């Protein structure tokens, strides 16, 4: 059965001086403020579409890698995944870099790297972002 997740945004004003609020309807976890400055300047208490993509990608990728490793008979103890989304105001999103560190018994660094690459290929968010260059660094602890 397909599931749907819902969020909505209310934006007020023009792009450069306006502001918005994104609300996480499905989970009810709350809302976050966003502005143009939150996309282009140093991070503060506001979010950006790119940070939301990074959160979605890092969490989905972690789940995909956990599945790949578990199916191989070597479930992970811990996975730490970071997604860094690069945004250039005149170009848009220019790339995403995933960095994963894993604690996994019974695999060597080569097997972990292979599993990490496989997970990147099969992660639903990676697939949704297929038009973007996605790079990966995988390290076994």
From TrEMBL:
<dbReference type="InterPro" id="IPR036102">
    <property type="entry name" value="OsmC/Ohrsf"/>
</dbReference>
<dbReference type="InterPro" id="IPR052707">
    <property type="entry name" value="OsmC_Ohr_Peroxiredoxin"/>
</dbReference>
<dbReference type="InterPro" id="IPR019904">
    <property type="entry name" value="Peroxiredoxin_OsmC"/>
</dbReference>
<dbReference type="InterPro" id="IPR003718">
    <property type="entry name" value="OsmC/Ohr_fam"/>
</dbReference>
<dbReference type="Pfam" id="PF02566">
    <property type="entry name" value="OsmC"/>
</dbReference>
<protein>
    <submittedName>
        <fullName>OsmC family peroxiredoxin</fullName>
    </submittedName>
</protein>
<dbReference type="InterPro" id="IPR015946">
    <property type="entry name" value="KH_dom-like_a/b"/>
</dbReference>
């Amino acid at each position: 059965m397909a599931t749907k997740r819902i969020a909505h945004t209310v934006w007020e004003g023009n792009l450069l001086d306006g502001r918005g609020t994104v609300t996480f309807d499905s989970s009810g976890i709350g809302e976050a403020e966003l502005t143009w400055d939150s996309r282009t300047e140093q991070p503060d208490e506001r979010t950006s579409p790119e940070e939301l993509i990074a959160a979605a990608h890092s969490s989905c990728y972690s789940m995909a890698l956990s599945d790949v490793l578990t199916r191989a008979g070597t479930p992970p103890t811990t996975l730490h995944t970071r997604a860094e989304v690069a945004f250039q105001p005149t170009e848009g999103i220019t790339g995403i870099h995933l960095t994963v560190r894993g604690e996994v018994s019974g695999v060597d660094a080569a097997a972990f790297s292979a599993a990490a690459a496989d997970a990147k290929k099969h992660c639903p968010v990676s697939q949704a972002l297929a038009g973007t260059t996605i790079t990966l660094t995988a390290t076994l602890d």
